[in-house]
Each structure stands twice: as C-alpha cells, then as structure tokens.
Amino acid sequence: MRTEKNIEPRRGSWYNGYSPAERDKKSRELKRLIAKGVLLPASGPCALCGDPDNVPVEYHDEDYGEPFSWEAPVLLCLCRNCHRDKLHKRFWRHSAWFAFIAHIRRGGYARDLKNRSIKNEVKAYQVALERGELITLKKLRPYKRKIGEEWFANLRMDAESLCDPSARPRP
User: Where do the record's region annotations for Disordered lie (predicted)?
Assistant: First the structure.
C-alpha cells in the first residue's frame, strides 16, 4: 500500500487516473492550439483563489480524456502558487490544503500569504485542524462563490487517486 511519504510528485506523473503519456498528449495538443491561435494563453483571474490582479497564471487540467475539452471546469487557469504549491500538493498536505481553502473562502488570495500576519493566521488554522479544533479566520474580502459547489470542493485527497482510473472525471 502506498503512503504519503513514498509517493513523490514529479514531471511526467499520473494525475486523476491518467498516465503520463495521456497527460503529455493533451499538453502537446494544448500547446499546438495556443500556437495556432485557436486557444488563448492562460489568463486570470485565478480559478482557485480568484485573484483578479495581473498575477502569472498557467493552465491546469482535471481531465485528460479524449475527446479533449478546453473549457472549465476541465481546463482551468490557476496562479502558480495555487497550482504548484497548493492544488498538486494536497495529496501530501491535507491540513494545509483545508486551511488554504478556508483562507480562500474568507476572501483570501494566494498572494495574501506573503503578508506575515495572514500567513501566521492560516498556519494557526492548520494547526487547529490537526488538533481537531476549529478557529475562525478573519474575513478579508467578500467571497462570491457558493461554498461546497466550487470546482475544487470535492476533489479527491488520497494519493492513490493519482493512478486510480476511477478518479477520472469521465469513464
């Protein structure tokens, strides 16, 4: 059985039950369509934290199955912090992921975590979660999405889902 400690994320890895070859095939097609002008390069706001400012964003895919889909919630634009440091590390950092989602739902953006007091508040929330306690984060901005219905609300957290074909959004 796999544990969180012996699975390492890396380039060319499995995701949502899709093999590296399947993921690479869609990635190549995405790049080809952008180069031809059929699809636009990734642009904000971030589909996870909602940061509307001109933060660098990149595409993230939840579904690599054919026929390819190029629309949300399959293909999303995420800021680099949300994409690389939060979303893909959720399998190994459950409490950090849940604390980050709480931060988003209080109107927080990923870039807010550069502020020491906000970062410390989110860390305290994470530690409280690990202890089975619940604390409230201070509201930063209005949150416009319906909690529990966001595309990220029910993502699988188990590392086994990376290679599990049943994790695919479509059979």
Answer: 1-20
